[in-house]
Amino acid sequence: MALNLNAVGQKLGPLTKSYTWKDVILYALGVGAGENDLRYCYENGLKVIPSFSIASIFPVLAEIGVKSNINLAGTLHGEQELIFHRPIPTEGTMTTKGRISHIYDKGPGKGALIIGESDTFDAGGKKLFTSICTVFGRLDGGFGGENAPKSEVHFPERKPDFTVEAQPASNQALLYRLSGDLFTLHVDPAFARMAGFEKPIMHGLCTHGYACRALCDHLIPDAPDKARRMACRFSKPLYPGVPIKTLIWKVGEGKALWRVINAQTGDTVIDNGIFEYGDPAAHTIRFDGRVAIVTGAGGGLGRAYALELARRGAKVVVNDLGGATDGSGTGSAAPADLVVAEIRAQGGQAVANYDNVATAAGGEAMVAAALKHFGKLDILINNAGILRDKSFVKMEPENWRAVLAVHLNGAYNVSRPAFAAMRENKYGRILMTTSAAGLYGNFGQTNYSAAKAGLVGLMNTMKLEGDKHNIKVNTIAPLAASRLTEGIIPPEMFAKMKPEYAVPMALFLCSEACPVNGNIYNAGMGFFNRAAVVTGKGAVPTKDGRVPMVEEIRDAMEEIASLKGEKLYGQLPEQLMDVVESLKSKV
Ligand code: NAI
Description:
Radius of gyration: 28 Å
Distance between the termini: 76 Å
Strand content: 15-25%
Oligomer: single chain
CATH topology of the largest domain: Thiol Ester Dehydrase, Chain A
Structural class: alpha/beta
Bound molecules: 1,4-dihydronicotinamide adenine dinucleotide
């Protein structure tokens, strides 16, 4: 029977499960905890190993197989990502809801990948953790579908910071399965032989539990609640009773890479491991599982945005054409490549893109790169920019057009395909970059001011069209020392204007937590405020409905121009309604 390709989009769960401290301890014993790990094995002062989360929602994982109609004899757990939002209680009731998000084809004889994403909530409706599970159907490839986007983890070329040895027992799988994964492959010798193994194999998630203990013990001792994200790929089977080593490299603040090897053969059994830890995730704004494009990210503000997005878990497409400040030159891959290397060195995921935002094809290629490498797009920061300053009469058409092409057309070119991809996913955050020059004016920058003010207009309508698709569009007016502002900002101020000061506002507006849509914020040097178009109460100079005379405008000018009692409108009809109301009361 073939895979059910219509399963994409089908719901997983809801699954509701109540559990007690005994389930927590049974799991701990199943992943090798013992008398040296009483915090996981004794109800007095009990702590929960974070990977207990995935074992406790096993029926949801099984549902991925059933709904996609995968060939059971070839089914293996491919990859697992867990994002921890809140500490997992030692007892309680959890409800899990999710959906099958993708089915990928690795090709004939190479298998298929079925991805199930789910969120698990406590009895009060608070999100505890997110699971992104990839089930590998060894026998289901070759149906002519798309291949999965490649995701690579770049391990440092040095010895691990920790090597943690462990000896799973020969009956480990028999103990582990009592936590819920009753799949026959791990208990029934005849089924295991049919599936091509000598005997029943360890559950990948059992070895994963060993790794989770090792990671917690060495990186967040006695504080497993500080685990924030754990991701990995199951790469080779392991038989119960075979000793293992978990190798851990610390990379950057709160992040480690890891893998588990078979200590007898040296084979990697779990690869591409990522572990992130720190303060409870509920208080931290994270971008795990999110995919972002930052245009013009080879330097200045864009680089700072890209680095922080990646540090907080996003996968980033680092776009930069690599031209001169005035947009001249043929471009260079170097700036984008350098930022990608910086992100990878801190353990993050990024790919470089050198397309030109000033063309529609460039915008499309950039979005296609996000989909190809990371499977979706959640965030777009329209940041690329150039300057060609001249006083107005000297502003030749060429300089006018070049600046509008990058800033205003650039945002249109990238946002349009991005918006389409986000609409598919029912989630998106788009950030426009305006400037004080556009909001308030700046001598010698007519082209730039026009483009930057145009972006506000673009946002004003995109916010309305995005609203029902959960796409929010906001605008930042940054102020930062960069090559663009080198000649404009006095040197004594330059030092106090690190691009990093604008980053928190940009990232907040791109986060899930962002409460606003269609707003503009100034951000720089540690100062933030809102800018907006406000409208005064106005006046109706004639009482009888006739067309006012020019002199009547002159006489009513004080009232017409007053901003007292000003209003902020969300869209055109609101303003029109007020006009109609004012006429009704005055005429
Ligand atoms: P920057 O020059 O360091 O960064 C702009 C980047 O955009 C460059 O790396 C450049 O190669 C890239 N780029 C230019 N044209 C491109 C194109 N056609 N396609 C792809 N990439 C292209 O400048 P900075 O200061 O970091 O500026 C970032 C954004 O912030 C710009 O939109 C700028 O107008 C805006 N802005 C900056 C202010 C500041 O104080 N630095 C003030 C207000 C706005």
